[in-house]
Structures are given as structure tokens and as C-alpha cells.
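Quick one: C-alpha cells for this chain, please?
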Amino acid sequence: MVRKAIIPVAGFGTRFLPVTKSIPKNMIPVLDHPALHYAVAEAAEAGIRDIMFVVSKNQETVERYFQNNAELEDALDSRGNTSKADEMRAIARMVNVSTVLQEQQLGLGNAVLMAREIIGDEPFAVFLPDDIIWGAMPTIGSMIEQYREHGSNVIAVKDVPDSAVPFLGIVDGRSVSDSEYVLSGMVEKPSLENAPSNLAIIGRYVLSPEIFDILERVEPGAVGEIQLTDAIKVMMENPGVRAYRFPGRHFDVGTPAGLLKASIHAALQRDEMKDDIVEWMKLAIAEHGH
């Protein structure tokens, strides 16, 4: 059973400056929930109970969001807004959270390695909260099932257009079902001519604890970063690495445009907002001549 997850949130969030001078990037809302909320909710729905956030300095709001705020909850109750008070309490009950400080941003591999003591000797999940996936079932839950069935590490992938290939990590492997692949390689940001496929790595991983020893031995890259994919490649022979092509809608909220698209998508799922948003979009499109 995968009970623990690592969610790296450290960094300056430069694409979102100036707002990220005071607000961690992953706490910027997608509609009315911070982007980080969606990753944690997906983890909780899949049965994960312990979350380790790898944070930078001055990111106290990350952990605080998932804690009780009795003063706020009592104020909501006293005003008769019990449904919102219950929603706040439910957020605090979703998972157990803890943090570890990453003083220097030395790559995703380094962030994962920092959580080794808390993860211990058991399989675990990694979420990159810039990737939000909406679907009928939690993507990480399906990946955990694959890990349980085959004993192989699992990474999430999706088909991307040719134009996106040179900007993403791309996998090589053979299909074993409509949604599963046994991997033989990964290439970071290949040219379209050298890309082995159009399957791009998306920020969900289920990994065996053996990866920690491998990360200890991985040589840092040109800018001193330890890459998680370098360690995953080592495990392709044993115990193996599989890819899961997930269903559902994916949004990269690590860019302002992606965050806006995800917010609009979230609003369109709300009965109380949908009609108003659709009408506004029609007017906006007409005004801009498209």
C-alpha cells in the first residue's frame, strides 16, 4: 500500500512575478482553491495519508492551509455558514502534512532525496502540483494499482502535439495495453526528429524506496541539479519502469495562461457559475473578433 507522498513546492515562481514575491506559486488559486489543493485531494482520494512538502524559505502558508483555523471556523459557524465551516474542517482532515526546507533548489531528485527519512523503506508517490488532472478516478490511484500488480515504478504520461515535444521529457517503450507501456528510455527535451514518441512525462510518479540509494549516486548536471529522471532510468532493467497514459483533463498551471485555463474549466463545472461564464466568454470572443 502506498501511504506517503512527496510534493515539491520550493522555488521562486518567477513566471508569476510579482505576485510570488509574497505568495508561493502553488498557493495561487485555481478559481477558489490553491493549485496545491488539487494534488493533495487527489492523493487523499487514492488513500494516501501522509504528505511531505519540500518548501523554500517563507512558504509557511503551504502547511498552514492544511491546518485547522478554529477562529475562522467558529466565525463561520456563528454567522450560520456551517457548510463553509465544514469545508474548512474537511481540508484539515484530508491528510497529515509535514515540511522539510530545501535551502537550495538543486533539482527534483534532490527534493525527493530530502524526504528520505520520513518516507523510510516503503513505496511512495511524487506529485508535481503544477500538473492538475481532472478525471473520474484519481490518476495516482490507478498508478498505485499498477505498482501493486507489477512491482515496477510508474510514471504518468500523455500524448502531446509535435510542437510541444522539444520542451518536455519524452518516453520510449512498448505498449502492453491501451494505457500502459513498459519503458526502455527517456529523453529530456529532444528535437522532434530525435524524439522516440509523443508521450510526455506528466508530474505523477509511484516509486520504490530503492530510488533513494540511486539518487545518492547520481551525478549532478551542468547547473548542479540532481534529476529524478536520471535515477528512474537506472531502474528500467530492474525492477522496471512503466508508464500510465491517464484519461481525464490535464492542465499545466505552472504558467499564467495554463492557470487561467484551469480556472475557467473549474468554473464551468460549477452550476452556479457556468451560465455566467459562458455568456461572458461569448461576449469577450465577439469583442476580440474571433
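Residues 163 and 192 are 8 Å apart (CA to CA).
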